Amino acid sequence: MSSTTVGLLTSYTDKTRWTPTQASKDANRKALQDSSWADGLRGIAAVFVMFSHMTLAFARYIVRPGDGENGPSQWMQRPIFRLVGQGPAWVACFIILSGFVNSLKPIKLARQGNIETALSNLAVSSFRRSFRLFLPAAAATMISWFICQFGAYETARNSDAYWLQITSPEVSPSWARAIIDLIYAIRNTWLYNPENPYDQPQWALLYLLQGSMFVFMALLATINLTPRFRVMTMMICWFWSWNWGIRIGDPMVGVSCFVGIMLSELNNSEYPLRLSPVSPFFAPPMALIALVLMSFPSEFHSWAQWSKVLLEWFYKVSPANAELSRFWPTIGAQLLCFTIVLSPHMRRGLSHPWLLWLGKVSFPLYLLHGSFMRSLLSWLLFAREHLVEFEEHNGDQSYIVMKYPLPGYTTFIIIMPVFFVILFTATHVWAMKIEPQFGLITKKAEDLMFGKQERPTALPVRHD
């Protein structure tokens, strides 16, 4: 055999050995940079926000970590199980994922050296973000306002379900007053200390928008930096934002959105690929710790030993303006997201088609579940109940009020599946049919304000 033939065979053999390995690395890198897991986690967060409101309505004992100070804890009051009632932890996930998703494309473009394209993307994204939050929220408010004026919330308002009772507004005395109430509700959603009487969960939308603007401004200031120095800058912003407190709004917005940017940098780096072989060893304990931190109660912190330990550590490590009820749930949400980015198995699990569908309907679910709970769910649960007397106390005074009592477990077991089918069908229709219309309105506004609309061609002038 000639030396030329041997050389060709050797070269061919080397290529066949090298190519699959390189292709495997490229495939792993692409899989690890896939961000579809964020949709899955967003869907889970939306479902648990809804569960937290159901907990406040029908199972308030879960809010407490135990049945009295140093008393026993029921299963649903213990860490991880009690996440069904931990709304603040899942709202923190929303803000972190918002920072992560909004910074993915600009950071990828910046790493490729396309600075001008990244800046253009930031400008367009910041414009679209305002419309894509405001328009669906205003539409959901108008729907809730409309059905409220026909007495749809009266059953919930007169029930013994705490969250339903306190979030169900009264019918306006006249249609003229109702229109004024609607205008105030839409306006107050976007003011300091937001409050929307027709859709209470919308209090978080201002902070989601605020966090998005923090992300856009931070990236605008650091887009020319190298990834290493951009991460260092975000870490400084993260430490600094702990001291913002209520002066900036929600005290957890800054720390969450800056973590989202760092997650995006990590997602675009080589570290997830390098750590993937050992991720099965460190990811499960990290995720477990994160879920325990997210379980920290918003009140009665000293009623269980585990929450008492976290309370003591809060006073040792927290900044001066940190909010106790949000501190550990926010830290836990950040740790959970970091763990997911570094774990291919968790990414793959959160990219399941059912979870991706949940992510697709997560924003409609967030906007609609409150109205459905105060109307349809209340009608179904209390249909066979009669008003009974309840004794309530206000200081030293006691008085009698008439309420619908909570039904038994059998009624819940029968009604809840029916309610979930109707609710998720409505959110799917909203995501498929209504949400695209908001996209069209946003696109038309963008074309108009950015000067992208084509001007009509002038007809030629005839000189007869």
TrEMBL record:
Protein name: Acyltransferase 3 domain-containing protein
Record key words, sorted: Membrane, Transmembrane, Transmembrane helix
Listed transmembrane segments: 43-63, 83-101, 133-153, 204-225, 281-304, 324-342, 354-372, 409-431
Source organism of the structure: Imshaugia aleurites
The keyword Signal appears for this protein: no
Lineage of producing organism: Eukaryota, Fungi, Dikarya, Ascomycota, Pezizomycotina
Single GO term (MF): acyltransferase activity, transferring groups other than amino-acyl groups
Record-linked Pfam families: Acyl_transf_3
Record-annotated Acyltransferase domain positions: 37-424
